[in-house]
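Table S2 (text version). Query chain:
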Amino acid sequence: MGVKESLLTDEMMDTIIANAFEWIVVVNHEGKIIYMNDSYCDFIGVDNKGVIGRHVTQVIENTRMHEVVKTGKEELADLQYIRGNYMIANRVPIFNKNREVIGAYGTVIFRDTSEWDKMNSHVKSMLGRIRNYLQEYEQQTGVKYTLEDIIGNSKLIKLLKEKVKQIAASDVSILIRGESGTGKELFAHSIHQLSNRSQLPFIKLNCAAIPEHLLESELFGYEEGAFTGAKKGGKKGKFMLADGGTLFLDEIGDMSLPMQIKLLRALQEGEVEPVGAVKPIQVNVRVIAATNRPLEKMMEEKRFREDLYYRIHVIPFQIPSLRERTEDIPLLVEHFIQKICKRTGRRVTSVTEEALDALLRYRWPGNIRELENVIQAAVHLSTGQKLTLEALPDYLRDSYSIPIGSKPLKETLEDAERQAILQTLEKFQHDKLITAKQLGISKSSLYEKLKKYGIK
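Corresponding structure-token output:
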């Protein structure tokens, strides 16, 4: 056989590529499809020629091909959910001779449908067992979140994640500070999950959600016959339920002074006294507290005890607001879109540049919780595969209407401030006290600005 006869022809290469894998797709440096074999097109239900030039997120649901192009890192044997099935996908970046990413190819390695059905059944069975294990683990320990559930690549979030790893192994008390909706509970769960207590209970108590007269029995429990209506045999309090593990006291700044004294004693002595009990009970509990209240100011006003503050404030832990980490918004938006679509079956795959710009400009007084709610509503209001500006709430579209660079800086800043005040007033039904608090200014300053901008 001659040399020429032994060389691979283009036709031979096409045949090999088309049949080497069950499905294959290739994208360029922009994430746009430049090749997709017939099997993949048939499975998804698209035309082979019609997909060329389209962005991969518009064609393949839950794809990460565009992310591989961005990062230049391969993703092997990754589970991907497409058309009601979990698939095992490989995604590999393509480099030029200068080691620059020029594209990526993705494959699903199954030879025929029967093999896929067999593997799909096995994967679903395996996922079912994992899900059962996680549910059992959650029931036994109370842990719902890990560090991987905290979405963000900003410098602030990376530093906090490293701090979690550093402090998790210790047993000292931690006070998590942050505005409402920043994810304080997620960090508390993550600290416990990485600690030596991870196999033992994680018990949560929201101090603001329990009426004052019930909080003591919730925290410390009660003995049988302690009061009218007490359960036969009594009831264990959160401290006893968390014995050996972690007790998360959310909204600790809302606790009354009398309860603060009782909590301080439990922390100092390592023992609790159930209501109606004759003697105290020893407990071994790590306490993680959280609040969005200004505890230092409350101490000056004698509304929060200094000794309790220093007992729980061994390691301070401040979570940034969303407006301090706006570079995480695109990642959070993508995460919420995928999460909501997976749960609801909606087909939104991405967000338009206009909509993303509006999301980036908004101040987010409700932080990540507000962002998730906005995305959830927008996904349901979107008619196509892209989340558009029209699907966002009016107050977000208004903030997008301020043209950057078209006015002097002073006017632009004043416009932005006026919009922020209007949006926050609307969000909180024109409650001036809450609005001032959310904007981080005094009530008198708010009234001055309302007068300045002619807001009634």
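Notes on Table S2: The chain has 20 helices and 16 strands. The two ends are 90 Å apart (CA to CA).
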